Amino acid sequence: xxxxxxxxxxxxxxxxxxxxxxxxxxxxxxxxxxxxxxxxxxxxxxxxxxxxxxxxxxxxxxxxxxxxxxxxxxxxxxxxxxxxxxxxxxxxxxxxxxxxxxxxxxxxxxxxxxxxxxxxxxxxxxxxxxxxxxxxxxxxxxxxxxxxxxxxxxxxxxxxxxxxxxxxxxxxxxxxxxxxxxxxxxxxxxxxxxxxxxxxxxxxxxxxxxxxxxxxxxxxxxxxxxxxxxxxxxxxxxxxxxxxxxxxxxxxxxxxxxxxxxxxxxxxxxxxxxxxxxxxxxxxxxxxxxxxxxxxxxxxxxxxxxxxxxxxxxxxxxxxxxxxxxxxxxxxxxxxxxxxxxxxxxxxxxxxxxxxxxxxxxxxxxxxxxxxxxxxxxxxxxxxxxxxxxxxxxxxxxxxxxxxxxxxxxxxxxxxxxxxxxxxxxxxxxxxxxxxxxxxxxxxxxxxxxxxxxxxxxxxxxxxxxxxxxxxxxxxxxxxxxxxxxxxxxxxxxxxxxxxxxxxxxxxxxxxxxxxxxxxxxxxxxxxxxxxxxxxxxxxxxxxxxxxxxxxxxxxxxxxxxxxxxxx
Length: 568
Prior knowledge:
Shape: globular
Distance between the termini: 53 Å
Largest sheet: 6 strands, mixed
C-alpha cells in the first residue's frame, strides 16, 4: 500500500519519516553489513545504523504517546518537540562510527526544523536548509573527514537539494538523486572500496534514509540504483520497488594486507560535559587513535574513537565530564586492521545468558556470572534491536533472555522472536526485577539440558519476591494512598505498598512486609543516591528479627531506584 504523502514538515512528517527509515534500514541491514569495509571491516554498519534509528523512533513515539495522555494536551506534538526527540534519541542510541554520524545528521536537521519564529522551516526551502546544516555539522564532527564515505554522500545530497525549487517532495527527491549518484562514485574516491568492489556502507544507509524521506512527502518509493563493480545504472521509479539501492556482484573481498596496524579497541560513551572541555577532549583523543567522531551539544555528547589504550580514552572522558553507557569492543581475532588473511570462524558456545541490568554495579556482577549484559540507564530502556544485538554478541546456539523489568516484556518478546528467526534457540524468562535475575543466574547450569535449565531458572526467579524504594516524581494515586512529589515509595512486586518520608524507615517497613511471608535470603542492591546507612540498618534488622535468614549486599551504581530488595 502506497504511503499517504505529507505536504509539509510537521511532527507527523517526522514520525512518518523515522518509521519508514527504520523499515528501510531493517530491510537493508544485512546487505549493508556485508559491504562494510571502511573504516573497519567489522561487518556491523547496517546493524549500527538500524539501532541508532530505532532509538530515534522510540523517542519520537514517546513524545506522541505523552501528548495522547489525559485532557488538556494538544492533539499532537509540535515540530520542535518531534525533531528534538528524534535528535536526542539518535544521540543517546548512536552505535559505531556510522550511527554516530547519522545521529549528527539528524541533529543538524533538527537545529533548522525546530527553530521557532514567524517563518518556521516547514516547506521546501526549510528542508534545503536542514539538509545543508546536516551535511556540514556531520563533517565538522569527524576529526579527519575522508571523501568517498557517508560524508561525501550527505554533502552531495545537500548540494542537489540546494538546486531544487519546489515543495518538500521535490527537494527530498533531488537530495535522494544526488545521494545515490554520489554513492555510486564512492569506489573511485576511496581505494579500499575500489579494491573490495563495493560502495560505502554508511553512504548506502544514508541513501535508504533519504529514500524514506522521499516516500514521506510523495507517497512513492524511489527507483532503485543497481551498483555493479562500482558502476551505477538507474532503474525506473516504481512504488513497488522493494529496496532503493541494490548491490550486485560486489561481495567484499578481504582488505588488502597493506591496511595493517590500526587500533585494537573501539570505545563509545555518552558524555555530560561543557563545550570547552569537549574541545580539549577532541584533541586528546585525536592523539590517542583514529576514527574519532564527537557529536552532540547542549551538555550531552556521544564520543566514538578507535584506540589501542581503551583505558586512556575513558580517562580522557572522565577528565572532560561524566562519561556513561561506556562500550569497549576489542576487535580481537576479528581485527580487520591487522591482516587480510582468512580467519577461522569462532565456534558458537552451546548456551549463554543475556540480561538487561539497571546499573554499572550489577553489570559487573552479571558479567562475572558469565552473562552478556545490556545496560539500561534510568529513563533509557533498551530497544528490541539492542537486545537482538546482545543475543548475537553472545554467540551461542541457545540463549536464556532475562529482561529484568516488567515494562520490557513486549520488547524482549520481539527480540526473542527475531533471534529465533535467525536460528538461535531462545527462552525468555519473564524476570521483572534484577534481583529475580540474580536468583535465576544462581541456579544456571550450562551443562544441563536446555529445557531443564530454563525450568530451574524460571522457578528460582518466580520464588523471589522483589521490591524497590524510590522517590515519587509527582503527585499520584497509589494502592497505598495519595503520594506527593518527593515522597519515598516502597513498591512490592510492582505495586506501591508504603509511602514514607525517610528512605531507611520506608525500606524497613517494606522488608518487614516481605519477610512476614517467610524467606531464607535477602538481597539488597544499593543505588548511588541511597544513604550508606540504610544497608547497615536493614542487615541489623534481619539479624535481630529473623533467625536463619541471610543477607547479601551489592552496589548497583546509577540504577534509578534508591534500593532494590529481593527475598527468596
